[in-house]
Amino acid sequence: MKTDDQVIYQKLGELLWSVMPDEAKEIKYVGMFYQNSSQAGTSWVDKLDTTHSFYEGFNNPVQEIEQEVRNLAVDLQKCSIFSENPWTHLLITLTEDGNLKIDFAYISEEDSWPSLYMRSVSDLDQTELDEYYIPMKEWKRCVSSKK
After folding, report:
1. CB-hemisphere CA count at 13 Å for 118?
2. Contact 108, 85 (CB under 8 A)
3. How far is CA 48 from the centre of its chain?
4. What are the residue boundaries of the structural domains of the chain, listed by start?
5. H, E, C per residue of 81-129
6. In 3D, which of 128, 31, 108 has the Cα closest to residue 139?
C-alpha cells in the first residue's frame, strides 16, 4: 500500500506528463510555499536546452493543471513524512523518459525572495543580486541574520 506522499508523487507525475510538449526533454515545476503566501510556476526544456514558459502574454494554457499541482504540493507539505520539518521550496522535474525527481529546500520566509527558488538570499553572493532584483540592504540583512 502506498503512503500519502507516494500517492501524491504519482499524481504530480501524471499531471505534469499530461501537459509536457512533444518537443520537451523535461518539464519543471518550481515553487515556494509558506503559511500565508506561495509562488510557483511550470516551464519546460527542449532538446537544445532552451527553457520555455507556458505563459503567452497573460494567458496560461496549463493554468488549471498548475493549480492542481499547487494543491498537491500543499498537501505533500502536510504529509506525516514532513510533519517535523516541512520543506518550503520544491523543484519537480519530469523527464521525457517518465523519470520524476523532486528536490526540497528548507528556506525561512525571512531569507526568501520572490522568484528566487531553491536558494536563500543569504546564499547568494553580491554579484548575483541584480539578477534577482534584491537590494543590497536586504541581502546584508539576510546574511547578518544567518550568522
Report:
1. 11
2. no
3. 22
4. 4-106, 109-147
5. HHCCCCCCEEEEEEECCCCEEEEEECCCHHHCECCECCCCHHHCCHHHH
6. 128
Grid cell digits, residue 123: 546564499
The superfamily (CATH) of domain 4-106 is BH3703-like domains (3.30.500.20)
**Side by side, which strands form the sheet with 51-53?**
51-53, 38-46, 24-33, 89-95, 100-105
pLDDT digits (tens, 9 = 90+) for 53-90: 887 767 677 888 999 999 999 999 999 999 899 999 99
What pTM did the predictor assign?
0.91
* 3-class secondary structure, 134: coil
Q: Pull the grid cell for residue 81.
A: 513524512
Map grid coordinates 520537451 to a residue.
24
